Amino acid sequence: MTLHFFFEVAWDRQGKCPLSNQGSDRAVDQVDVATAWEGLTLSSGSQLIDVRTRAEWTYVGIPDLGPIGKRAVLVEWQTFPDQTVDARFVERLAGELKALGVQLDDDLYFICRSGSRSLAAARAMAEAGYQSCHNVAGGFEGPLDDLRHRGTLGGWKATGLPWLQG
């Protein structure tokens, strides 16, 4: 396989990654972290998918779903350090979900640092046939505050939801 072939597979002619599904017909709704937590708590088949990088999981932390008898599914949307979108993301995540017994109509909540990568990942999985994909707006760390720090204004951590240092 040549580098040229990989480039054409991974990116369209306008330089956009087709996995991001910008303008996708499949709806992905935005939910806040409290709504995501409630959905994860109330529905046994629901899953939280954290699409951040291994470095973020290790150094920033991960959502702790232990109190509700679950664990976050950790699958990188982009790889660190080059931030290349994983062309096998859908395949990898579908395999993880299948192993957990997740059905195509179960609620899937996608989270990243602030909600951008997770939206792209949720759209990709919706295109793959998963019918109830939700983007966790605000993400794990939330938006920047006035001092340009994350984790104080919103998101999973600042809201006080359980998390663990990676």
Describe the structure.
- This protein has 166 residues and is of the alpha/beta class.
- The chain has one domain: 3-Layer(aba) Sandwich (Oxidized Rhodanese, domain 1).
- The chain is 31% helix and 15% strand.
- It is built from six helices and nine strands.
- It has helices at 3-10, 33-42, 54-59, 89-99, 116-127, 155-159; strands at 29-31, 47-50, 62-63, 73-74, 78-79, 84-85, 108-111, 133-136, 163-164.
- The chain has a five-stranded parallel β-sheet with strand order 1-8-7-2-4. It has a two-stranded antiparallel ribbon with strand order 3-9.
- A hairpin with a 4-residue loop joins β5 (78-79) and β6.
- The protein starts with a helix and ends with a strand.
**Major sheet, described briefly?**
5 strands, parallel
> How are strands sequenced across the largest beta sheet?
1-8-7-2-4
CATH architecture annotation name: 3-Layer(aba) Sandwich
* Portion in helices: 25-40%
Mean pLDDT: 85
Alpha carbon gap, first and last residue: 36 Å
Bin the strand percentage.
15-25%
Oligomer: single chain
Shape category: globular
Counted up, domains total 1
Name of the CATH first level = Alpha Beta
Report the CATH superfamily.
Rhodanese-like domain
Structural class: alpha/beta
CATH topology annotation:
Oxidized Rhodanese, domain 1
Order of helices and strands: HEHEHEEEEHEHEHE
